[in-house]
Amino acid sequence: MKKTIVVKIGGNASNQLPATFFEQLKIWWLEGKQILIIHGGGPQISQWSKKLQLPVKKINGIRVTNDETLDVTKAVLLGLVQPKLCQYIAQTGLPVIGLNASENHLLEGTYLDQAKYGEVGQVNKINQQWLETELHNQIGILAPLAQTKTGQWLNVNADMAAATIAIQMHAESLVLLTDVPGVLNSGKVVPQLTETVAADLFQQHIIKSGMMPKIKASFNALKNGVHQTFITNDLGRPGTQFQYVEK
Description:
By secondary structure, the chain is of the alpha/beta class. The protein contains 9 helices and 16 strands.
């Protein structure tokens, strides 16, 4: 059985992927790892929403999504961000495929809190068998959009989606690739982070609310069987590694 690595790429990070990103993908590929990349597109979605004069609002790092914002989100993720990432990876000679929730019930979800967030959900179930088959001979690029059982599209926070998918895929590693080198304290990367230290840093306003979904996702993955989780801006460097301490 091949070991799986799940990489989440933020919208900012996808615009400035360094050479080390593609080098590390190649190393993992040659080692026989299965690679799944979950991509966000937050800055691009905000940019297009503003152009279309739609409200841009987040609560605890989660985008409030009405029907129009959901349409923009789908268009940006599936029509702009995903094809560009596929192109970048294909240019390195690695085999790659773009994936989305509507294929073989790939990501099934339920509403997170419709009254609070609108058309926002969480991933409950993945079609693991089909996904494993797709990842056997190619790198998968997947948008964090789910569908309900009745086919309603849901916007899902990419960090939370990546953690849930990593858990259900029994992944070896979850890497959250962002535009900062890790969790920072006084401008320096915190190399290892426990839940207790994360809570302290948040209370001191050192960790901002935008980083919280990433931190929660990382600890959730660790507690549920993912071997290791990281936040970094470079696949070649570990950045912040998360440590789960049993209470």
